[in-house]
Amino acid sequence: MNIRIDTHTHSVASGHAFSTIDDLARGARASGLDGFVLTDHGPGMPGSTHPYHFGNLRIVPELIEGVRFLSGVEANIMDTAGGVDLAPYLLSRLDFVLAGFHDICFDPGSRSANTDAMIAALSNPLVDAISHPGNPSFPIDNQAVVRAAAAFGKALEINNSSFRIRKGSERSCAELASLCAREGASVVCGSDAHYWRDVGNLSKAVAVIEAAGIPEEQVLNASVDRFLSFCERRKRERAEAAGPSPF
Ligand SMILES: [Zn+2]
Ligand SMILES: [Zn+2]
To answer: Cα separation of 19 and 231, whole Å?
Structure first.
C-alpha cells in the first residue's frame, strides 16, 4: 500500500519537536509523498503553542517544496465528554483535526472511562480522527471504539511512532486494525514525526494495515483525492457545528 499524505507531523511550534514547516516539507518530498498535514499539539500540552498559531496557518502556502501543505492540529481530549483544547472557530478553519489522549491532559482511567471519552471525542462534530487509539497506556474497548468511528464517519489512526515509543502497541494496533477491516471503519496512517527525517516513515504502520487486510479504499491517505474529499466533508461539518466565527 502506498501512502500519499502523512497525516501526523509536528513542527517546532509543538515545543518538543525540532523542525520547521519547510523542513517537514523537504522530508515529505524526500520520502516521495504528495503532501503532509501539520498537526502541532493543542495549547493544553505544556510547551506547545498559543491558539493564534492555528488561526494564522492560513498564511502558509498550499505548496511548499513541491508538496502539498495541509493545516491541522493534534488536539488533546480533555474530558469524558469528548471536549478538546481548541476553540470551535479555530477547529473549523483547519483541514484536518486529530484528537488524542496525552496523560498530561487526561489521566488514564479505567477501560470504560477511556472508552467513553474516546467515543465522545468521535461523536464531537469538530473532531475528524483519533490519534494513536492503540496506546496501551489508555486501554479501551477496541470493538466499541471501531464501531463508533464507523458510525460517525470518522477515522482511527495507525501511528508509526507508537511501535517505537508506546510499548505494547503492536498487539493493540493489530487488534484495532483487524476490527477496522471487519467493521469498515476508515483509517489514516501517520508518522507522528517530531523531526523532519521521520516524515513519511510509515512502514511499520502500513505492515499492520496490510496484515489486517484493510482494503485500500478504507485507508484515507493512500489516495490524495480520497483524503482531500474526506477533509472537505469534515470541514463543512465542522463549520456547521462551530457556527459563525466570533472574529
Ligand atoms: Zn500524540
Ligand atoms: Zn503527535
So the answer is: 25
d(CA 66, ligand 1 centre) in Å: 27
Task: Tell me how far the alpha carbon of residue 190 lies from the centroid of ligand 2, in angstroms.
Answer: 9
Give the Cα separation of 2 and 65 in Å (integer): 21
As a dihedral over the C-alpha atoms of residue 201, residue 5, residue 205, residue 120, rounded to 10 degrees, the angle is 130
Ligand 2 center from residue 165 Cα (angstroms): 11
Which pLDDT score is estimated for 247?
78
Please give the distance, rounded to the nearest whole angstrom, from the Cα atom of residue 210 to the centre of ligand 2: 22
pLDDT at 246: 83
- The CATH number of the structural domain formed by 5-242 is 3.20.20.140
Mean pLDDT of 68-93: 97
Q: Hey, where are the domains in the chain?
A: 5-242
pTM of the entire predicted model: 0.98
Cα(45) to centroid(ligand 1), Å: 10
